[in-house]
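Deliverable D5.2: sample structural annotation.
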Amino acid sequence: MAGPTTIRVDLRTALPIAVLGLVVLVIIFVQLCGRERVQPLGEVTPLAQATLAPTFTPGPSATAGPVEATATVAAEVGGAERDQIRLRDLRAIQQALELYRLDHDQYPDTKGGIQSFCVFKEFDQGCELEAVLSPLPSDPLGDPAENGYWYESEGTFYMLYAQRESDAVPECGGHPDHLKDFKSVICVRSP
């Protein structure tokens, strides 16, 4: 008759595996507690819905303290939250434009055309604000060439534009043809 089977566990290999498992659990816990809204199991936000954006291909040139800048936010938040971030970013840019005007007696001049705010450093006049506002805000969906902010000025006035995804912020009264790929636009004008 056979005796009971003995299993030997070497603690030198089991202990590091247990510690690694504990570290992974702590990381998961910290990540979940750091979110504003934790989704219950079974509730899934479609990734395609969260990351869809209009297509926009800007040209390399123009067409014929301040509020703290918001860093890029993960696409986990909804359109209303992203619109609030965009509005806050536009207000930070607006304050930076006023500081720039105090030093240079005018706003950065795009000759009246709409440019990406600061995608092409050698061409975009919005990049002039890096001396006043650093880092420059970027759209919460990322990819500033498609989802970024836009700037228009003749030196004495300006308009700032961003896409609008919800009714949480007012829609811009005008919708420039240059931004026609966006269903709706947020804008901020010079005072």
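Annotation notes: The first helix runs from residue 11 to 33. The longest strand covers residues 158-163.
The annotation will be released with the project's public dataset once the embargo ends.
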